[in-house]
Structures are given as C-alpha cells and as structure tokens.
Amino acid sequence: xxxxxxxxxxxxxxxxxxxxxxxxxxxxxxxxxxxxxxxxxxxxxxxxxxxxxxxxxxxxxxxxxxxxxxxxxxxxxxxxxxxxxxxxxxxxxxxxxxxxxxxxxxxxxxxxxxxxxxxxxxxxxxxxxxxxxxxxxxxxxxxxxxxxxxxxxxxxxxxxxxxxxxxxxxxxxxxxxxxxxxxxxxxxxxxxxxxxxxxxxxxxxxxxxxxxxxxxxxxxxxxxxxxxxxxxxxxxxxxxxxxxxxxxxxxxxxxxxxxxxxxxxxxxxxxxxxxxxxxxxxxxxxxxxxxxxxxxxxxxxxxxxxxxxxxxxxxxxxxxxxxxxxxxxxxxxxxxxxxxxxxxxxxxxxxxxxxxxxxxxxxxxxxxxxxxxxxxxxxxxxxxxxxxxxxxxxxxxxxxxxxxxxxxxxxxxxxxxxxxxxxxxxxxxxxxxxxxxxxxxxxxxxxxxxxxxxxxxxxxxxxxxxxxxxxxxxxxxxxxxxxxxxxxxxxxxxx
Length: 495
Ligand code: HEM
Ligand code: HEM
Ligand SMILES: [Fe+2]
Fold this sequence. Notes:
This protein is mainly α. The protein has 19 helices and no strands.
C-alpha cells in the first residue's frame, strides 16, 4: 500500500478496488456490461446461501424452526431461489451483451441504478416477512406485506419496482443490440425477454374467485416461466457458453437454438394444462394437459444431445473444466428433473394419486436445481475465469479438489433429497390415496408410517450434504484461479 492511501481516507470506489485487488482480480479485463454482471452474480450467490439456509429450517428446534413459522421459512426458501436464479440470468445477459452486440452497453447508469433498487427492495421485503409473520390478508397487506402468491410473494409495491427494473434491463438489451449488431442469439433473447417480463405482470392482478385467480395468473407466471421462457433463456446461455468454452461454430448453436425454441413453445404453452387438472377448470384440460406436457421432455432430450454431442466432437477439450462439468450437469439435470421427473406424474390418471404429495417436491427440487442452478453455476465459472485474466481452469489447476468436491456434494445431495422425497411421495400416493381413499385417516396413516418418516430423515441428511456442497462452492468461487499463471487458450490448444 502506498503512503498516499495511508494518509487520505479512501473513497468508496477505492475501497471497492482494494477489495478486487484482495480477491486477486484485474478489473481491466472486464467491459462495463460484465462489471454490472459481476454485481448480479454476487447478489445471486448471496441469495443462494439464503435459500439453502432457510431450506434447512427444521435442522434443529431453535435454529429457524420454532422461531419462524414453517410458512415463512418456506416462502423465503423458494422466493430466494426464484430471485437468485433471475439475478443469475440477468447477470449472464449483461455479461454477453457487449461481446455479442459488438458495442458498448446502452444505458449503463440505469442498469447500475436498477441493480441497487432491486437489491434494496428485496432486503426490505424479506425483513418485513421475517418480522411480520402472521396477520390479516387484505388490501393493505397485499400492497405492503405479502401478495400471497406462491413463489412470487412480494407485495405489490415491490412488484412494481421489479417491473421497472425489468424494463430498464429490457431497454438495455434492445438498445445495445440495436446500436451494435443483431444475431440469432440476440433475436431469441430479446423475444424471450418480452415473454418473461410480460408474464410477470400477469402475476400482479387479483381476482376474488380462486379458480380464476389460479387459472389466469398463478400458473402463467410460474409454469410458463419455468417451462417455457426460462428454458429458452438457458438455451441462449447454453448456446453462447458452448461457443465460448468449446469453440462450437455459431451456425451450429444457432440452428439448435431455433429447433429447441420451436419445440419448447410448441409443447410448453399447452403443457401448462397439468396445473389445471384439479382446480375447477373444464375436463378437457385433462386431455390437453396430459398430451402436451407429455411432449415437453422432447426439447430437453434435444438439449442433452446438443451439449454432449458438441463436447464429444471436440474430445471434451475445453478452456474451463468446472464450467463444462456444470454445463453437462445442466443438460442431464434438466432432462431428468424436468423431463423424466415431470413426466412421471403428468398424466392425469397418475396425477390423481400423486398431486399434492412429496412427489411434487421431489420433482420441484430436481428440476429447479438440475435445470437452473447448474447453468448459473457454470456461468459463474465462465465469468470468474475471464475476471481473473483468462487463466487456465482445468482438472490439474491449483486446489481443483474444491470445485470437484463442490460439484459432487451438490449433485449427490440434491439427487439424494430427490430420491428420498420420491419414496415419501410414493408411500403417500399408496397409503393415503390408493388404500386410504384420500380421507383424513388415510392422510395421517401416511404421515406417520415408518417408511415416510425414514424417507424424511434421509431427505434431511442429503440436505446437509447439499449445504456443505454449497459452502465449498462459495469458497471455490472466491479463490479459484488465484495464483494460476498459465493462460487458458494456450493450454486448451496444446492439450
Ligand atoms: C425446468 C423445468 C421445470 C421446473 C423448474 C418445474 C418445477 C415444478 C415445481 C416447483 C412444481 C411444484 C409446484 C407446486 O408448488 O405445487 C411442479 C409441479 C409439476 N410439474 Fe414441473 N417443472 C418443470 C418442468 C416440468 C415438465 C417438463 C413436466 C412434464 C413433463 C412437469 C410436470 C409437472 C407436474 C405434473 C407437476 C405437478 C402438478 C400437481 O400435481 O400439482 N414439470 N413443477
Ligand atoms: C439444504 C437443502 C434443502 C433443503 C433442506 C430443502 C428443504 C425444503 C423444504 C422443507 C421445502 C418445503 C416443502 C413443503 O412445502 O412441504 C422445500 C421446498 C422447495 N425447495 Fe427446497 N430444500 C433444499 C434445497 C433446495 C434446492 C437446492 C432447490 C433448487 C435449486 C430447492 C427448491 C425447492 C422448491 C422448488 C420447493 C417447492 C416445492 C413444492 O412446492 O413442491 N430446494 N425445500
Ligand atoms: Fe408445470
């Protein structure tokens, strides 16, 4: 440290710089869009930690359980998940924006402002959730405390803020591409963001009839997001990542992208019928939902073929081993979590027995983790590699055991939880529904059965494995690439 900084109180930007220096990061390697992306990635990791912390609610009485209501813990757990994934996706988009458009980001200042507004709003919303756990549900609470819509419970004032931030984000994307150049990836991305932001607005209205409410709003946001717009978004990210770390040609990834988008929207939109089976909608939804959602796994198979074929073509030679490993985890996780685990209970004949059991939680965990946590983590590694000055990140780099163990623990943890929950769900469908005829007595018989209780213990154990994997991942993200002097391209080519 120079004598200068000892006498003069460092300003905030200087402090930030010294933090970057401490982290061993050369800021000059990043363009403005990427610097903004790094903020979003940091926010995402912090929210990811919160998600898992609140998932571990029942680890011991007095930890969170018994202090906060289950409903509050659960709400923070799943809302933090949706938010950290959105932060990650926004970050990925800002990251590739300048490279893909060939020009500077259009509204950087607004973008930065948007980040801080969003983060401040989230902090206030969560504090309110934690301090006001129970109370009436009326217009005032709808505006100020909680909208009561699973997965996106933010009160309406925050909803409006979120929409404004999304508009800023959308403006930045469209204007930057317009000032620079458009590409197939840019076009798909922009159209998808229209759908993504538009559907969020659908979750802000309120109707008094709960069937109407669920029909129009709830599942439009959650289902159409995760099974259509988010899937397309991760496709864009996957296409761009494969070009970056594997060197696949733009022509090939863009062709795949178009095929997958067509399949995704073709099956995903009417596939939302599997949430219309038992909410009081007309019976034809059983047929429509059953048929179209059974087609939904097809694009997911295409994505696996895409990723594995492209990497196999290049003998798995690539510039960033942790990112590549997580991309492969994404291809399989998406296929199994969404495609196979979703398909298992999507036919109405089966869903009659599985609806509302741990079966849903089993699928929900594997799908969100497999499809969206994985690809965000892959992108964190892509960003960090660049941030550290494009150093080599391979199986033989310094402390590579950390990313390998984080990869193993997180994947084994979530898979273990998924299987435990599936066993519990199987038992519930059998004892509560098939034998017990969906009666109260059947419900309690299923909840207290030893096989159910054992399964829940296993879920807890694998939850701890997942949490330790996350701890290791965060440590690795903070340190990987430090002290590495070999450059990525040189090694990838000479290997
Ligand atoms: C990455 C994509 C996906 C994600 C993140 C996802 C996530 C979820 C979640 C969290 C739930 C539980 C909702 C609740 O709280 O009640 C759910 C339910 C369900 N999902 Fe998915 N899903 C995905 C794709 C799919 C696909 C492709 C299918 C069909 C092949 C499918 C079929 C179902 C079914 C049948 C239900 C249960 C409906 C019920 O009984 O209420 N999902 N999904
Ligand atoms: C330490 C690990 C974790 C634990 C202990 C845990 C625990 C829980 C619990 C107790 C619930 C509430 C279930 C209920 O309402 O009956 C839940 C719901 C949920 N969690 Fe986790 N979770 C963990 C990690 C994750 C991860 C990594 C993801 C995805 C990335 C995830 C996604 C979800 C989703 C989507 C739901 C709602 C499922 C539904 O409504 O069916 N969780 N989790
Ligand atoms: Fe769905």
